[in-house]
Design goal:
By secondary structure, the protein is an alpha+beta fold. It is 20% helix and 30% strand. It has 2 domains: 1-37, no CATH class; 40-180, tt1808, chain A. The protein starts with a strand and ends in a 12-residue tail after the last strand.
């Protein structure tokens, strides 16, 4: 993620209108825009593997799965992010055109340059979304998936998974082996 070079602050509405005319995607945080940089082939494959499996699993249900070009708004006024995979079953998102606002599941595939932010600041922002039930972080360099799930007391709990584990995403009642997300992915280690 790279900050826009001009450093001009925008209102949320200015950002939404401006971004429609850009050649690349930009995230919006506190009045600033940040260019989204390209990911690696493993990063893309991992996101596609999970999004495809979720799409198939959710077929016929009111849930909808989206990939990288679906923007998520933490609120009407931002911040706005582009998670790698997002699922919503909220009726209010059915007519969404510019951004999803009521997701139940958000997935980020980690890269060395964004991991700290995805685990920290971005997760802090996502936790403000009342409908969010699970936040998943997938390592693009080794078999590792962290699922943060909100419990019945409103506390986020970590459920870590590694090679050989079966994962259960409770927000969409989806069971799958961790190997599914790494199918056809060449890991660096």
């Amino acid at each position: 993620m790279v900050a826009s070079p001009d450093g001009n602050y925008m209102t949320p509405q200015e950002y939404l209108e401006w971004e429609e005319h850009q050649d690349i995607k930009y995230e919006y945080i506190n009045g600033e825009v940040f260019a989204m940089t390209g990911g690696t082939i493993p990063h893309n494959s991992i996101a596609l593997n999970l999004a495809s499996a979720l799409k198939s699993h959710l077929r016929g249900s009111p849930c909808r799965a989206f990939m990288a070009d679906a923007k998520v708004g933490v609120s009407e006024n931002g911040p706005f992010h582009y998670p790698d995979v997002v699922v919503t079953y909220d009726e209010r998102d059915r007519q969404a055109i510019k951004f999803i606002q009521y997701p139940c599941l958000i997935v980020e595939v980690l890269s060395p340059s964004t991991e700290a932010y995805d685990r920290g600041g971005k997760f802090t922002q996502y936790r403000r979304i009342q409908t969010l039930q699970e936040y998943v972080l997938i390592d693009a360099e080794k078999f590792s998936l962290d699922c943060f799930r909100i419990n019945d007391r409103g506390i986020w709990e970590l459920h870590p998974y590694e090679e050989g584990n079966e994962i259960h995403l409770t927000s969409v009642d989806f069971h799958f082996p961790i190997s599914l997300v790494y199918e056809d992915v060449q890991l660096s280690i």
